[in-house]
Amino acid sequence: GDEMIDPASLEEETDPSLCRQIRHQYRALINSVQQNREDILNASDKLTEVLEEANTLFNGVSRAREAVLDAHFLVLASDLGKEKAKQLRSDLNSFDMLRYVETLLTHMGVNPLEAEELIRDEDSSDLEFIVYDSWKISGKTAENTFNKTHTFHFLLGSIQGECPVPKPRIERPRKVRMIEEQQAMPAQLKRMEESHQEATEKEVERILGLLQTYFQEDPDTPMSFFDFVVDPHSFPRTVENIFHVSFIIRDGFARIRLDRDRLPVIEPVNINEESGGNTQIRNQAIIALSYRDWEEIVRTFEISEPVITSSQSQQRLSA
Fold first, then answer.
1. CB–CB of 174/219 below 8 Å?
2. Structural domain contains residue 207
3. Per the database record, which ranges form the Non-structural maintenance of chromosome element 4 C-terminal domain (predicted)?
4. Does residue 185 fall inside a structural domain?
């Protein structure tokens, strides 16, 4: 909605010199109305001019002092308007019958003086002729002031005697093509899911190969989990690495344990060790990693290069 405006803030923003000028003009206008009171009452448009001048001044009013002067002027203007209304004379309540008759006879083409003589002369034979002919003229004039009733018209013509013949129904062919496309869409989505699953499996196998290669070079030193999965240059790549490593842990090809410093390390699981019944109880865990945590890990462990490089970078190095 609209914000409320504090009146105090408006007073602070208003120019004091402009306010003084508006007050001076209001006082001059009020003095002029008081001194020329009789002239304003006698003139027809003098009060309107004064009100228009006050409306122009009111556009610049923004403080209470100027508004009080405007209210004082409105009281004077309302008093003047009340006195002018009392001076108006209305002839609606008075009806001059003789003047109306003279005007009506003149409109009918009859001289009022001759009509008066005919009315006095009771033996005159022209009295009926004049009265009938005069009222006929008056009736034609009054006929134009009455509204005529509109005649009835059919909106769509007259009613037909015969019923219309129904049109034969045309059978439209069904939309078989759209049904075929809808049936093909699940297969297309299935192919996309299969391709995405194949790409995930290949990436998991590649990361497992990297882990086994680093472990073969130095089997006595387990690799830090953060050094293995964290990419110091990309937070999204770090999240993807953790996602792919989780499949390796789930399938039992590697395990995560805590070293002497209670920090996680990752190491591959020997197949012979797994098949010999020397397996440990597996526990599930959820890793929560935010962007700030990723920055703190990179800074604390001083990780400068990623261990798990992207597949595209590996292809460029092998080429």
1. no
2. yes
3. 222-308
4. no
Q: In the chain, where does DSSP find H-type helix? A: 7-13, 16-35, 37-42, 46-58, 64-87, 97-108, 112-120, 126-143, 176-217, 225-229, 235-250, 271-275, 291-300, 311-318
Last residue of a domain, one of 39, 55, 86: 86
Residue 224's beta-bridge partner residues? 265
Of 54, 86, 118, which residue constitutes the final position of a domain? 86
Q: Pick from 231, 186, 182: which is nearest to 207 by CA?
A: 231
Please give the Cα distance from 252 to 278 (Å, whole number): 12
| Total of domains in the chain | 2
Residue type, 56: T
User: Which amino acid is located at 208 in the chain?
Assistant: L
| pTM of the complete model | 0.39
Can you tell me whether residue 266 is helix, strand or coil?
strand
How many Å apart are CA 36 and CA 31, to the nearest integer? Answer: 9
CATH at 221? 1.10.10.580
Nearest partner of 25 among 66, 83, 62, judged by Cα: 66
Q: Are 136 and 126 in contact (CB under 8 A)?
A: no
Residue 259 lies in domain: 193-318
Which amino acid is located at 266 in the chain? I
DSSP letters along 68-119, please?
HHHHHHHHHHHHHHHHHHHH----SS---HHHHHHHHHHHHT--HHHHHHHH
Tens-digit pLDDT profile for residues 260-278:
888 889 888 875 555 555 5
298 domain-assigned: yes
CA pair distance 76, 96, nearest whole angstrom: 38
Classify residue 257 by its DSSP letter: E
Q: 10 Å Cβ neighbour count for 270?
A: 11
What is the tens place of the pLDDT at every residue in 77-132? 888 888 887 776 554 456 677 888 788 878 877 777 766 666 666 555 555 545 66
Q: What 3-state DSSP class applies to 220?
A: coil
